[in-house]
Amino acid sequence: MEQLKDDCLFCKIIRGEIPSYKVFENDDVLAFLDISQVNPGHVLMVPKKHLTNLFDYTAQDAQQYLQYIPMLANAILKSDERFEGMNISTNNGEVAGQVVMHSHIHFIPRFTGDGLKLFTRNNADKYDEAKYQAVCDKIKANL
């Protein structure tokens, strides 16, 4: 585990220096209960290599670490008959709400009446065909 950092909370959990409720572990990833439990069954999956966020991933990293998302999502979904869906998300950078600077995927089970509200906004009325195309072209130029 030479690719872990000494001062990273999740690296310490991976090394076993901080206890966690492990859901799944192999050579690539560790999945454990989020201490906040936004909803019961809220799990975090972290790579066993220190990557700050998805911007640090190579294509090989993505293939190696993200392949476990469907397996974990299905196991969590089946763990409680109330679960009807799930938010699977990752915050990348402080401005996006990332608190621990070690890449992690949130699995938040959802059920009717859970009271959890996720806020988005619809700005479609501020765009026309030219604006959509300009945004699209800028992204394509950086692929």
* SS element count, helices: 4
Number of strands: 5
Radius of gyration: 18 Å
The strand order across the widest sheet is: 1-2-3-5-4
The CATH superfamily turns out to be HIT-like
Structural class: alpha+beta
State the helicity in percent bands: 25-40%
Question: And the CATH topology?
Answer: HIT family, subunit A
Mean pLDDT: 95
Largest sheet: 5 strands, antiparallel
Q: What is the percentage of strand-forming residues?
A: 15-25%
List the topology elements:
Layout: H1 9-15, E1 22-25, E2 29-33, E3 43-47, H2 59-66, H3 69-78, E4 85-89, E5 105-110, H4 129-141
Antiparallel strand pairs: 1-2, 2-3, 3-5, 4-5
Organism: Lactobacillus corticis
InterPro entries: HINT, Histidine_triad_CS, Histidine_triad_HIT, HIT-like, HIT-like_sf
Domain HIT: 9-117
